[in-house]
Amino acid sequence: EVQLVESGGGLVQAGGSLTLSCAANGFPFDNYAIGWFRQVPGKEREDVSCIMAHDGSTYYADFVKGRFTISRDRAKKLVHLQMNSLNPDDTAVYYCATEYTCWGLDQVADWGQGTQVTVSS
Asked: What are the strands, taking DSSP E only, across 1-121?
């Protein structure tokens, strides 16, 4: 059974930082890209960042480039999303997901349960 468990969400002031983590179990970690997505009520879930399985290539949405960094620890089966210079528009539920390849909702195989990130102004 695929398990993706996010952690690290919370409340932070604008300009602050948070690091989200996604713990992966139940599938061959090196066989899937891992992506981070986010969603706010009333809006579609959107891609934030993704890291490829075979070579670790990384991808970012334009609205997080230069502020967020995705990384992985293959030994521990963890994927992290370091988020800096947060602003209120980053407030959302953040989800990690296994993907057949980066990028896009149609590439998602499994979802985590999500973690709330709230950025106060």
From this structure: 3-7, 10-13, 18-25, 33-39, 46-51, 58-60, 68-73, 78-83, 92-99, 108-111, 115-120
Angle, vertex CA 63, rays to CA 58 and CA 66, nearest 5: 55
Length of the chain: 121
Residue-wise pLDDT for 28-75, tens only, equals 998 999 999 999 999 999 999 999 998 999 999 999 999 999 999 999
- Whether 120 and 87 have beta carbons less than 8 Å apart is answered as no
C-beta separation of 78 from 8 below 8 A: no
Residue the block writes with tokens 């599938």: 27
Q: At 61, phi and psi to the nearest 5?
A: -70, 150
